[in-house]
Amino acid sequence: MIKNYPQFSFGFAIIAFAELFAIVNGFDELRYFTKSAICISLIIFIILSVKRKGRFTKRIIGGLFFSLLGDIFLMLPVHTDTFFICGMVAFLTAHLFYIFAFYVDASNEVKVEHRNALPVFLVYMTFCVSVFLYLRPYLGALKIPIMVYCFVITMMGIMAALRYGKTNFRSFKWICWGSILFIISDTVLAYNKFVAQVDYAPLIIMVTYMGAQFLITTGTVERKYVKKN
């Protein structure tokens, strides 16, 4: 990954380091720039790197754009449920864009043996239901919105996994790991917000989040369409 895109990887590493530095030192105003730069830089990277932008690429860019909006809402100084819900809706929309993008490959008519779609579905859905049932007593009026969000991000992970054999393996691998990191990031965020404070939660959330978006983006740039057998 770093070998393929040394300049971008180095630039993104600087942004990631600046974001973590701002978190550790409590520089909230600096984070308006560092956190926003995450998705902005990834969007620019895709635009400059992908010559032919089909449905897949455009939807990933849409997902990054709504992720940017979600980041902005969650950074607003007045921490109310209203801004949290706006951020959640923005990220939910981002995941829908990712789902529709991954569906482009998952619905490819190329034949793939032993896709194990049912086990993948069961593993992801079991995790989704378990997390929601654990959080449910702490959610109050947000039970329904959180349930919907859990379902959507789980479907994002499932669709990423179902790209196996439908695209080149490098793209599949990076995007699949990116989707898993995204789920981990949001799980930690939800536990930290609704259940109990987690040590170093902001760092854990942002490291996994930045890793997720970076992997999804590089997987998009590396994507090659697999033709039907």
From TrEMBL:
Location of the protein in the cell: Membrane
The protein's superkingdom reads Bacteria
The question of whether Ion transport is a record keyword is answered with no
Topology in the lipid bilayer: Multi-pass membrane protein
Transmembrane portions of the chain: 32-48, 60-76, 82-104, 116-135, 141-162, 174-194, 200-221
Q: Which Pfam families match?
A: YhhN
| The entry's keywords | Membrane, Transmembrane, Transmembrane helix
Q: Which PANTHER family match?
A: GH04784P
Q: Which family does it belong to?
A: Belongs to the TMEM86 family.
Q: What is this protein called?
A: Lysoplasmalogenase
Task: Tell me the organism.
Answer: Pedobacter montanisoli
